[in-house]
Design goal:
- The chain is of the alpha+beta class and 66 residues long.
- It is built from three helices and three strands.
- A three-stranded antiparallel β-sheet has the order 1-2-3.
- The protein is globular.
- The mean pLDDT is 84.
Length: 66
């Protein structure tokens, strides 16, 4: 989660679960579910990193900073 937040994603807690939302926090934005107690924490962390890296809005956010 720290990696996602460092990339501009935000976390919203929902019970034992939560969701990470990309910087484009609207209907078209990316999101990924975060399990509070995953069966395999390493795999779950890899899934989150993969989702953050594949976000098509990542490049757009980088372009706006320039």
């Amino acid at each position: 989660m720290a990696y996602a937040e460092s990339q501009g994603w935000s976390f919203r807690k929902q019970g034992h679960w939560g969701r990470l939302y990309c910087a484009k926090a609207d209907r078209d934005g990316c999101q990924v579910g975060v399990n509070g107690t995953p069966k395999n924490a390493d795999n779950h962390a890899r899934q989150i990193v993969r989702a953050v890296n594949r976000c098509p809005h990542r490049q757009e956010a980088d372009d706006e900073d320039v």
